[in-house]
Amino acid sequence: MKKILVLGAGLVxxxxxxxxxxxxYQLIIATRTVSKxxxxxxxxxxxxxxxxxxxxxxxxxxxxxxxxLVISLVPYTFHVAIARRCLAIGRSIITTSYVSNEMRALxxxxxxxxxxxxxxxxxxxxxxxxxxxxxxxxxTKHGAKIVSFRSYCGGLPAPxxxxxxxxxxxxxxxxxxxxxxxxxxxxxxxxxxxxxxxxDLFAHHWPVEAExxxxxxxxxxxNSMQYxxxxxxxxxxxxxxxxxxxxxxxxxxxxxxxxxxxSLLPAxxxxxxxxxxxxxxxxxxxxxxxxxxxxxxxxxxxxxxxxADALSRMEWVGLFSDRPIVDAETVLDVLGAVLEEKLSYAxxxxxxxxxxxxxxxxxxxxxxxMITSTLVDxxxxxxxxxxxxxxxxxxxxxxxxxxxxxIKVTGVCIPVLPEIYNPVLQELATLGIDCRETxxxxx
Length: 443
What we know:
Blueprint: E1 3-7, H1 13-22, E2 26-31, H2 34-41, E3 47-51, H3 57-66, E4 69-72, H4 79-89, E5 92-95, H5 101-104, H6 107-112, E6 116-118, H7 127-141, E7 145-157, H8 174-180, E8 185-189, E9 192-196, E10 206-210, E11 214-220, H9 226-230, E12 238-245, H10 249-259, H11 274-281, H12 293-302, H13 309-317, H14 331-342, E13 351-362, E14 368-378, H15 386-403, E15 411-413, H16 418-430, E16 436-439
Helix pairs in contact: 1-15, 3-4, 7-16, 8-14, 10-13, 15-16
């Protein structure tokens, strides 16, 4: 029986663990928090848990040596160090995180040793690559070329659970969500390169209609230009990858960025409440007894109307209040702590993943056609979230395929090859995670 080492036992791990146990693999779950691993295994005879600090190279090496394959679900900052140990010992590794330049540098050695380092095997990145490349390769096979590509993905509350003013709830790390709001972006629009500095990220947003969901809001996600060559779309005049949220999110986040609440600086000295932090960030010298004064001051600072929706959302979460702040390293972490409390899922509420690709193809006869690929997946009340299913099941399926010998590619890879994406997408569809493609009439 093949043995898989799973590093990490966080929010997305349960579907992966269950899938691999159901397919008769032995699992070792190694984590700092053993109680989480115990809950995931639930006494299954094919699983065991180990306490592990990733800073312990001896313990890590022993577990890698004992296993046939490694899946890393720990924060991305650890992946290169783990991959290096896998290379030294001779084991392949799968992660759900973006490939870094340091990870790419390991590819030649991995090829030489016949090992696979498969990254970006989640949902975004992951299912987004696989579903996009299935369309791109199919179009090319039929003599067409993609001239425009737009892709959006978002993890959101299901419509019936969208019941707070922010239009958002956390199905993964609040810190990760806020840190993503600090990213710069770059994309191609009608042949024109658009550079978006981090401070202006949320000034670039527009409505996006998603079938079966309704009107959402999209904004740029990091650097889209690296996907031109990766997807083989050198002839495309539009290349855009974005994030989806419910309407109003971008205006809110723009206000928080401009105010300084997404800063990695320490909280202002002597500030003990959220109102005091906000006042310091907005340059208000002294808090007034008037409960509306701080909101009006922030409106002036941000050049917003006093009744602006973004201000109401800030007020709802307590940013103008005398609520005590938590002790945290940065202003961003102070905000993240209260958001984790206020924007949590209640028992029985569902989350939702929406993935939307929009292609314009130039057909062999010169006509054009719109192709849309849509995935909408909902969490299971009382069970797995859509986020955990769509992030971890692609990695679990890939692990099975590697150990069965169905995936033979080596080196540092992401799932843009038919050898990887075809069987993974087929298996995901049997699990209810299905990307549906629709085609317009040629024009």
